[in-house]
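Throughout our pipeline, every protein is held as a single compact record rather than as scattered files. Such a record has a labelled line for the sequence and another for the backbone structure tokens. The remainder of this section carries one protein's record, kept here as part of the documentation:
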Amino acid sequence: MKLQFNTKLQPLQDALAKCDKGALFCVKGQSELAMPRIEVSDVGVLSFPVTQDQLKKMVERATRAPYGKGTETITDLNVRRVWQIQNADINISGEQFNVFFNAAIKHIKDTMGLAGETVTAELYKMLIYDKGGFFLPHRDSEKAANMFGTLVLSLPCSHRGGDLFIAHSGKQVVVSLENDTVSSIKWTAFFADCRHEVKPVTEGNRVCLVYNLMRSGGHKLILSSDSGELITNEFNKLFCVRKAKKVYRPKVVDDEDDDDDAVAARKVHDDDEDDDEDAKVLKKAKTSPTTTTSTKIEGDKENDDDGDDDDNDEDIDAEFNLEGAKDRMEKIVYTLQHVYSMANFTLESLKGNDAVLARALLAISDKAQIKIGLAFIHLKEEGGYSNEYGGPEYYNPEAELTLEYVKDIETDEDMDLDEDMTVEESEILPKGRLDNIKPYEEEAEEATGNEGGTYEKLYRHSALVIWSTAYTGVFTMVENPDVVFQMWDDELEEMGGIDANPRATLELFFNMLVCLNKLQKSPQQLESILAILGENSSNRYLPKLISLAIQSYGPQFSGRLHGDILIEILLDPSLRSMTPDTVSKTITLLLRYAPPGGVVDLWCKMLEVPNPPEHLSTLQLHMVHQLKDKIFILEQCDKLIQALNTHAMFAQERQKLVDMTCAKATAIMNIEMAKGTFPSSLKEIERLLGLVATGVAPSYVSLPRLKELFKMVVQGSPPDLHIMIMRTPYLMASPRWSVSSQFIQTG
């Protein structure tokens, strides 16, 4: 099935292609050497070329080689026809052979993307193909931990045919292992997941030694500055990250195996930089609570205790912008070349270009602010099916893509994610990798009656998943709110408290909110967030922290649930950052994001504050003027009017404010009456009339006003006989003034 490629990913694909070291999925060679001493039990020391007498004895000593099918081991000469001798019955020695063997292993490392790793080979068995011997297409099972491939040595023994066809990722290589020599060895190595086939031997016998290739260690990769910068910039564009200001330094992943020359070269380079800038010193950057990147500052200039005075509001708003975080791509899913089992899918098990790519990404992960995971893409394809015209036909396909078995590539620990994390086609790289994969399960149903046929195909493919940590930091891919708040506490404790590093607190808080914004929100979460903000004692970024909380959780705000703690923060005289101006801006932001009813309840609570600060009355007046355009419920108008009529702070502007609020209430009444049904509107008019009669009606409700509403309701529908008949019982049951000649005529 062909997926739609997101052309915006093309520049990143091109940049990542520069990391491709040209790693091959198979290599081959031939070496002339003094042949080793190979002794086989019950056969003796082999001669080269192997003699017919020795071949006969080896076959007598051998057993038929089986093959694996799922969890079964099967011997079937229709699938595999070859003799095997176990490694315990073979003894190999020879100094020149060891030199040859070590050189072959080094070549395998250098050409198959394994540089920096420790590669070893373990003899598995000897295979003897006689005339007609073959092995149908298959993949080798990974028979031991850290096994990644197979090495085959073809010993001198005259034969024809038996070519080895090795296929991988749409490419195929044909290796001839015919060896008519006396003193040379032909060899080939390939990754275990490569599909390969041994064609029938047409003449003579082929004798070969088969080794399991093992790997260990070697997470190291030093990426050039140019390549690292190019890839980082492309990630920044896709993840909407502002260009980093720090100087790029290549990261060495697991550099314990680094060679001394490389370390020395980097040291010389660093020393040269220091000589050029000896007036500067290195100081740990405070822009992140988890950063290990160094940044340069003037040697004699010391920042204040929190190191944040150079920040201005515009820079802070631009850097910590929740709206910008919404528009970014969440992840990129890079499908891998090789096939991996669920049981053996780790950083150490990655092969060829997959390994090169993964280690290149790890090398720039800090600089590019990315987190990398291993996962399987699960693709479910459904559509129409027909088998009427000479073969099956599949049409109108629809695909559903999800991620399964996601784990951290560095720790190999499972990530606590949704079981079915959706993958969008626009997130998948590289172009065309999944177009020709084969389903591991498929099912089709023929058409029945009036219903057409349907089909379902299931696919699975290994992938790297790349998330940006620029907006979520340590909270990247955390899916549980309880875990988020626990991580906040843990990170804050490690930082030394909420006031220890205000700039780091701001970044951590921003990261937490971006993470929480993807999850199901609740008023209880906002309660926890406000409790966090209430712990501040001197944080200069407190107004920004509050504004971020309101932008994220404004819709969950309740004046009754959250009002007390918010008022305590806004009016705390010990918080220098909460000036009258910042408090006013905070309330304006709350009016923009929070439900009006929640703000009305907050306003009422603020009226009850004992010994209020001088600016509170101005703030209350400001809130009333803003609320009149926000509220659309009469109950909220009633609360405002009652408070305006009873609190002394509104004495000078009381009538103006009450009239303004009454006008808003009248407009709301008109809207509600216009939307209501004829019976419900009359019932509401009767209710209000009762309030007028008992003297408890709101000031915006009067008998003349009710008459106007009645007239509006009666005239609300076109004059139709059927409608008039339906109205009559309600009119007859209405108050006396409603059936006067004036209103009957209007109906």
Remarks:
- The first helix runs from residue 10 to 17.
- The two ends are 67 Å apart (CA to CA).
- DSSP finds 23 helices and 28 strands in the chain.
